[in-house]
């Protein structure tokens, strides 16, 4: 990656720029002296600019920034030596990788695999549970510094990438440094990347994706060259890394997707003069680079994930029985047994984990809403172990005395006998207590043959083939009533007092309802009434089964989506997206009351608010430009305008796509979800600063193709005011950074008064704030 | 660096060069869209070219067309008013909107999620025809009695009929042919869904009408604008557009989508005008301001005027009170409060209210906590009651007896005074100690109880420091000392330093579900603020300074109500048996069960032909427009064709209207119904007819007419096929099953009889059968029948136990509370004292007059009803007493409490507002925050 590819003198093979000596030069407006002088005599720039724009200066600047970034992120990285915030999760996942125990998480595995790798590399044996925030690492001798170093390195390397993005986009060294400094001296980015969290990885790869895409775009006049292909594939690959780090990375994929669509739309334009063949070639190339490559990589992460996690672990219960049987030491694998007729079993609902239950109490004749019940015996869902949960499986066909014929199989029709009351489970065309649309479940005396048909149920084992036996634990099934085709179902609604607030069980009209899934939890006894432990004995230790990678992958993806959407429980530090750019809320990561230390995730308020101002200025400029153009006025020099629309527009797109979708999400949201957007907004801020300071830009920056027409060149020139302003701003930023550093690094401890003084906005909920005491 | 529009522009000329004028991208709008004959006619009358008359906005109607239009209106009236009086019982959401009309007539305050215009129109009709507001619209299927329901149904029905000519005129104004316009108007006429919806007391028909009106007027305005702006007619059309917009949004908030449609259209107009460099900026500004004035300011004024009327009518207290702030409540009749002393001194008798939660007054009653310290409960109670009264005592008086204050000079309450609060009824002090509270069992909360006894002065745990948080800006004194109503203060417990606190947490049944009060060490500021509502002191001179609530002005009331409506609307997320999501609407996946009774059914379902044709038109537009865009990109010059340009702009407008009336529903989480699609459907129908216009544009007029006739005949056949569901007419099972074209159409066929002949035996229930013998409440003619047992005839009940189909149920009205609460509110309604006697006589009557079968059934219900009425009557009475005079009888109350605790878990002094209040706070806490 070159950091200053754009400095004059490089790329000369492509850019034999004729001094803008076309016939138009004489007509420049005298008002725009500066701009025209840059047009006319590109070498005629201010001394400072010339100095800074050299390759050497550029390397020096970026080197200094990177060094500082490492320093700030590694400073006291061993503090606190305790589990902080989501290290609870991600540290734990790393230890699972090392122990090779299966776990389940909503995020894709790439970043967590890296942590596992880092942990393994520094000699972590995985035997630490990361149970609570505040658990000590040193007492357990965990090499946590090594694991924290990974995000810190990636977080530090983000700085030179941001610098290069701006440099590649044709901004001068000063502007590129400005954007980088906004990230470098940001407390939120620093705090987030010093801990075992996924965001540093996400942001690192996201910025690399942007960088590669810009390099790719700049080569658009050298289409289908090796270099062009390289950056195209690099974009796709980094995109996959981003997406594989955290589920929000999908937004980066959307960003690139939108940009590519706009790009293709341009190529389609007849005025470009391309044939349709040419268009399809471009289309296919992007499909390969940005769809096929990323998907392959993404699948690879999961392949590695499954390959590493071969043992049974905490994530088992999320998965389907077929999946669970592929894990070594899985309970289902060990205890799953074939069920035989006349076995007494307990039946559990898969989603709500309640037992199918019945007790001698009857349904009341009349419900509150005036509907009438059958007054039969209640059938409910009950969460605790109880002998009333026991049901016996009664056959409806003749059985042999012994042998395999006694095994219950898929598609069998059976009856369920409630053992304690000696009644058969039954459902009929009567509305259930809570839902007028669903059927009531009740039981009927086993000697009452008049209702025989209503007690017949069809056993429908999920994903089973004809003749498969019904197994305990693993055999998830639906019980479909034969005459009315309703399925045994329960939901989280509780019945009133008369049923002891137990859960309602009723018949769902949809015979293939997904949530109507049950499984046999335990076999209590067989037909002779003897505890069936003996059946386990002849079951040897089973080999884990194999399952196709793609079906494993598909199942896990689906679960991740469902659980991601399901993360709606409230969290004390969850916040609304509208608060994020303005930095209204932070997250308390960690506290220690003795010396009153705390880590509070909050950004550098000067940097964040500058970014917001920059975004609004950008909108203003674009709006004004649109209106002016509409009235036939062109106030902005074309190269600058071009850069504002295309390049800065892309940054704004990155910002918006990484931010706006959060408004539509109902899940728990935290301010660290804004960090990728914040990075994009610093890029916008740099660009806007350039526009405010000067009307010049390095132009053109795309590498000229063999047939591309030469354009009048322009060079960026900020003069002296650029470095001075950026230096002043950096100083202010730095002071603010240091001021807030105690909250970022969690040290030193703060007394109440100084906590109060660091609470710059009243909405920040810092700990240990001194109470405002009034004298009595 | 995204690819962009910019990249394909040619390099711009260097600065300073005059820019060449941009080439005209589209041809100018045609000035003369009339054919030669018409132009000749126009010229002969001396009008400008391209203008055939001064008729509105370039609307060219031939005289014969007016006759045609009249005919269409007659047909529409026939279709939509047919047997409007059937069924004579409550249908679907008439439950709500009928009820609202009753409340308007009785001027009882209520809250609803919809703005008032449509409801006011319905009320007006009811009022003119002499409705007295005494019918309760309780359940679907309840037979009307002394309700001019036909007149009320006439309002939506008439507006529904009026939509039909508007469809015709709109298409004509959009420059479509008469045949097309006729087709559209007949499509609208024979749309089963719109017919069903417009025949009942529902708000959607007015909404659709005003949407259609707005579109028509706006199209007229656009036509004017194309010819000559700022003429008199131009202004008239523009002002009408504004008023019509105001009316749409005053019917339902969905009207905002119509505003968005017109807004997009306006912005597009202005954008085009801005690009026309011949227009000087001054003229452009004039255009801009005129539109801003008429399309923004005018609708807002109209909307606010509707609310002004709403507030003027609803000046009495009702079950909506609980949703509003205490200031607001005091603007309602019967809710006012007498002026109270402005100052508070040691010895004052005060009632203290919690600021943030609308939970009510600091309250205690002679019941103990079942756990914790087992001392007497302290709660927040929403209603006025003597149990809310506390006496402020000085805690620093050494060895002082509590009557010290009588002998001491008056000592006004200042910040940081150490005080005790003595509960007057039970003579116990407000007390806190290191015991966890019953519900919020956390470390930083302490229990608050009432402790002590007469003669026992109490301990240091009864002491509180007064901290003044905030005074009123207009009362400078209130920041310095405690002033009634003006000062917000906190009470800090002297020994533990915690603050007296309450939050939206209910006590269990042993605390009558009143709000929990605790002492919180980490109290959120807002939830630990209190104010004194009433203050009396025997030593204050009677003419001392007094205060009362500052009554909010119209704007304050208006904004408060808007907020309540907004939060409530967003919170309507409960599922309904017949709700549906937007994606199912264009496919007409299922309808809504409106009403089932006597083997007849009303079920909202569209006319399949019209519906699917309109959806197909939308789909076709998207496809064709997409292809056109791609073709334009590849250099085909389709848009040079004037025909393409004409239909593009025409269909584009309707398509944008459809999108804006449909797509926003996707982001709404609230309960949605098929009828929410109707405004979008209107646009879709017009679009489908424009498609017809385009497809047949090259055919001869006769052929075009023939095609239209075939379409209309199919539509009418479809309509009549499903019409029994629209009108609630007899139908047979067989026909019904045949009509289930989609499996998902869930009207219940089992409900119909096998044969038409069987219907002859069934007389539709009439009020005459059972009403006369029943005495009405208060004994006035036309009064409210006291009990409604005669409704529940056994067969219906049997039906309810089966699950063959979902029961017809109205949309959820969040403000209404559930059925049990309704019964209570009936009895508590202000009525003459004779009430009790009348009711008991009414009860005895049916049992003697009805048939034996019925009596048996009723006997079971009677005791329950009687019990509930007898329990709630004295309670309501006691409540009233407490309201009007401060002297009450604690003994009676206590007895009531004991006796009826199981019936009235809400509290010793229950009343409907308590229910409403509770529901409001549970569901929409945000609405209660601001006070």
Low-confidence stretches of chain B: 1-10, 52-57, 765-806, 816-931
The helix-and-strand class of chain A reads alpha+beta
Q: What structural category do the secondary elements of chain B indicate? A: alpha+beta
Low-confidence stretches of chain A: 1-31
Main sheet makeup of chain B: 12 strands, antiparallel
Described by its quaternary structure, the protein is heterodimer
Helix content of chain A: 40-55%
Q: What's the alpha carbon Rg of chain A, rounded to whole Å?
A: 33 Å
Global geometry of chain B: elongated
Number of separate helices of chain A: 23
Count structural domains of chain A. 2
Strand percentage of chain A lies at: 5-15%
Overall 3D form of chain A: elongated
Helix content, binned percent of chain B: 40-55%
The count of strands of chain B amounts to 16
Distance between the termini of chain B: 51 Å
DSSP summary: helix tally of chain B: 27
Q: What is Rg of chain B?
A: 34 Å
Report the mean per-residue pLDDT of chain A as an integer: 85
How many strands, what sense, and barrel or not for the largest sheet of chain A? 12 strands, antiparallel
Structural summary, described in words:
The complex is a heterodimer of chains A (776) and B (931). With 776 residues, chain A is of the alpha+beta class. Helices cover 43% and strands 12% of the residues of chain A. Chain A has helices at residues 33-40, 47-52, 55-74, 87-99, 110-121, 137-140, 144-168, 173-184, 187-193, 199-218, 226-245, 250-268, 276-308, 321-324, 331-335, 533-537, 549-566, 605-630, 638-659, 661-664, 675-693, 721-745, 752-758, and strands spanning 344-349, 355-362, 377-382, 390-395, 413-418, 423-431, 439-445, 457-461, 477-481, 487-494, 503-508, 518-525, 587-592, 597-601. Among the domains of chain B are: 71-309 and 605-725, no CATH class; 338-548, Trefoil (Acidic Fibroblast Growth Factor, subunit A) (Trefoil). In chain B, strands 2, 3, 4, 5, 6, 7, 8, 9, 10, 11, 12 and 13 form a 12-stranded antiparallel β-sheet that branches. Chain B has a two-stranded antiparallel ribbon with strand order 1-14. In chain B, strand 3 (361-368) and strand 4 (376-381) form a beta hairpin. The longest helix of chain B is centred in the N-terminal third of the chain and has 33 residues, at 281-313. The two termini of chain B are 51 Å apart. Residues 1-10, 52-57, 765-806 and 816-931 of chain B have low confidence and may be disordered. Classes of the chains: A alpha+beta (776), B alpha+beta (931). At the A-B interface, helix 10, helix 12, strand 6 and helix 19 of A face helix 10 and helix 21 of B.
